[in-house]
Amino acid sequence: MEKAAGSPSAGGSYPQKNAEILSSQYGINLFLAGLLLTFAWAVHAVGISKSHLLSYLITLMLIQLLWMLWYLGRSCTQRRLIRDKDTHAGARWLKCGITLFAVITLILDSFKIGYYIDFSNCLSPTEGIFPVTHAVHTILQVYFLWCHAKDIIQSFKTLERFGVIHSVFTNLLLWTNGVLTESKHQLNEHKERLITLGFGNITIVLDDHAPQCNCTTTTLCSIFSQGIYYLYPFNIEYHILASTMLYVLWKNIGRKVEHHQQHKTPFKFHGITVGMIFGLVVLTSTIAIVVVYLIQIGRSKIKSELALTMFYLHAIFVLALMCTAGIVALLIYRLEDRSLDNSKNPARKLDAELLVGTAAGSWLLSWGSILAIICAQAHPKYTWYNLPYSVLVIIEKYIQNLFIIESIHREQEKVNDDIKTLRIVTISRGSTLSLTPSYKEIYNGRAAPESREVPCLLKGSICGRENDRGAKEETIQDKSSVMHSASDISFYSRNSVTNNKRRILKNIAAFLFLCNLSLWIPPAFGCRPEYDNGLEEIVFGFEPWIIVVNLAMPFSIFYRMHSAASLFEVNCKT
């Protein structure tokens, strides 16, 4: 029997801990089975076809659809109940991002359906069923995440753990399938381009999974087949974002939260003009570089070398700017004295772990390039630009991770009591509000309407003493106002410095946000010098290096998108 949600040990009880361990092991085995099936299809294992892999994925998606429908139905029947929510999970900007990627994923599914219709004579029925099932799965999952990403489940906890972890690893397998399909396409294009760089000693064998029949409509088939591979990067990001949001939901099952007011942090363009301008310049130039790179690479040896040189020089400049911005932000943090929020937060912990974990993909590629440059016997001119580029990739991620992790752990500034006092004092000194009439106003007959005029009955010494007392009060008030003015000026100067620091940090976060989006574009859309410069393939061998790149590149791509999302949150929070 499960303990009640209100018991002190709920979430940490022995049965619930067992349920967490059992569900995680179920998910891992589910993932490993699918991963092995994917690998068997990729290497053309005997008896394993693409239909087997797609059948497995369709089954997993159908099971998740049934669980989500059950959860949504149960939630509708209990909608009057007050439920705990994790205010840090499922931010609105994150939901908007996953919705955008989901819409593009639906376009990808429609292209796959069209591709199946054109090649229906020689394709397995599972290749037509898969995109339809995936489209339904995508629509329902996005709706589910919009409505329930913040939930802290306190009932049916054991069953819900298995349902959520099944959803997590289903999305991870769909992500793996997308990564593999996109990587095979990139690898085929890379093999065709290698000969133009003079690496004729590498055996080129295309890994072709194209259907063995003619297309019914040649033009449409070409549009569908080419468009599919340009939409895969968005599909990949959609599934990895969905899996992370579901993982946070799984970690929150049975969790006890402290009820406190959560400050909303809306995104504002005010005050980040400089960062946005520089970031947009980097974004525009990166898109131009990618277009030129994809046009020039593989045309001839000279054009390919020029394209690589252009890419490296642009990346070196951008990475140097990002390192400088990150260092400035960290120096500002060292000058501030603000405590860190160390409260338990699964979403924040996952963000930090993903930043460091996925950065390892880029670090692996960078160290491989550095080692290849050191060990290679011949060094074409363009390969020397690879050395500072690889070093800066390592340093930039190191600095950026430190900045982001410290930013998401810093407590938000609260309104200081001095600010409240200052506002009261400022209002009370204004001409529109006077809490009590001064002695001067009373004796001069300018009191408030509710106070009557008080005449001086005795014109002798009594009135003289009262006038002297009024003069003294006026002098004391004048001195007090001077002292308050000095303290106000000091407070305003301190507040101005704080605002300037905050403005600089917001501009840095905005600039790094756009830079990370810019650096996500090249590898996501086929601009990968790790494939094209050829030096690493000579040192490590073609197959070993390609395996390293195919394993590390998806993490490198995800790192940039995850960093951009984290920096967006930093900008809202600062």
Automatic annotation (TrEMBL):
Regions crossing the membrane: 26-47, 53-72, 93-117, 129-146, 229-250, 271-295, 311-333, 354-379, 504-526, 538-559
One annotated Gene Ontology cellular component of this protein: plasma membrane
Family annotation (Pfam families): Otopetrin
Entry membrane topology: Multi-pass membrane protein
GO biological process: inner ear morphogenesis
Keywords in alphabetical order: Cell membrane, Hydrogen ion transport, Ion channel, Ion transport, Membrane, Transmembrane, Transmembrane helix, Transport
Source taxon at top rank: Eukaryota
Name of the molecule in the record: OTOP1 protein
